[in-house]
Amino acid sequence: MFAIAKDDIAVDELREKLKDPAAGGYCVFEGWVRNENEGHEVERLEYEVYEPLAISEGEKVLNEALQKYPYRKVYCVHRSGALEIGDCAVWVAVAAAHRDEAFKACRYIIDQIKIRLPIWKKEHYTDGNSGWVNCERCANVLHLPSEQNGKDG
Amino acid sequence: MFAIAKDDIAVDELREKLKDPAAGGYCVFEGWVRNENEGHEVERLEYEVYEPLAISEGEKVLNEALQKYPYRKVYCVHRSGALEIGDCAVWVAVAAAHRDEAFKACRYIIDQIKIRLPIWKKEHYTDGNSGWVNCERCANVLHLPSEQNGKDG
Amino acid sequence: MKKITVCYFAMFRERAGVASETLELDADTAMDVFVQTRSRHGSDEPAGHCKVAVNDVMADWDSGVDDGDTVLLFPPVAGG
Amino acid sequence: MKKITVCYFAMFRERAGVASETLELDADTAMDVFVQTRSRHGSDEPAGHCKVAVNDVMADWDSGVDDGDTVLLFPPVAGG
Fold first, then answer.
1. How far apart, in whole angstroms, are the C-alpha atoms of residue A67 and residue A105?
2. Considering its fold, how many domains does chain D have in total?
3. Which of A27, A64, B47, C26 would you call most buried, defined as having the most Cβ atoms within 10 angstroms of its Cβ?
4. Which among D31, D40, D51 has the least Cβ separation from residue B147?
């Protein structure tokens, strides 16, 4: 189950959804809003989410993780809207028979969510500036050759 | 901070202790009592803990993780006493600047706790039998040569 | 020429000043749409950093586009 | 001979029927104590599966033991 939340993620309640008598390992990852990014002091931030595709792509990621690291239960919630320092931006929880699958599925899910879902983060800095944060993998992606041939409009 | 708990681990309250405005990644692992182990249907279990050394060895593990995967905050609690199916037997939480350290430190800690701390698990099965559970790494440990030379007492 | 509805997100939307618009484009692929709308989304990002969807389905840059399609242009994502 | 207090845990304690006892042993190392108390802790486990502490400090099997020491014999652990 993948969901977008417009308000605080209710982590305590969500944990109950993962309970499973056949699960021996439970791994959670939470992304928190930090007070600093690449040398800039962050005051708050906003997430813009294109929900239809964020949800379908999120569900796809959960299914891929299930194939690779069979788990018992999974739940993932990503915030949209305005967040303050310390707020939980994303919550990924996996319950599995053993801890190895729980850890690996959880890691796979958060890694993929960060690079694949149509979600954008705008940071507002204490100096009054703001900026859209670039995908962490962008530095590794090459220009596509076909792009050079296009006609500029 | 490493602690032994005689009653339910208060996971919701403990999460608050990890809060840190410079932490962007928070990883938790919980070990839950499963209803099955190696083909036996488990009814309940008991942990025996030798507290003085479990705590000192636990703190050592947390420090090793800090050296390897610098984190901001850590908290680990292991249960002693009687547990039912679904109960949380161990809780490991790490808050770090980035998710990579959070995941790796959390995994290192639980892996070491399972093989190093003087903690023993006795499983009670639905068929009325019970048994002490063997360390998961024991299959990989060889007999020590000096052992053969000892005098039997 | 094809009638294509182009949707802009995040920094693309801010630069275009609109969330979507319908344009007449001489475009065969999603990449053509991206390149021909550069003056709108204002991006000098390589397309490889961006993503595209056609009619609400994630697509490749060389996916074909037809008259009446909706093309969603996604600047570099940063979830989590 | 040395006076050594031996503490048994978990299955060792159940087999010995006592949590600890003080014995007169001709032991130079922790391993000697483990081997010479086999009839007490009843273990045919290889020592490599077990752990030992001397005077509440984790020790190696070849750690020396002195008169008056307390040796803690830990069967295979299974935390988590």
1. 9
2. 1
3. A27
4. D31
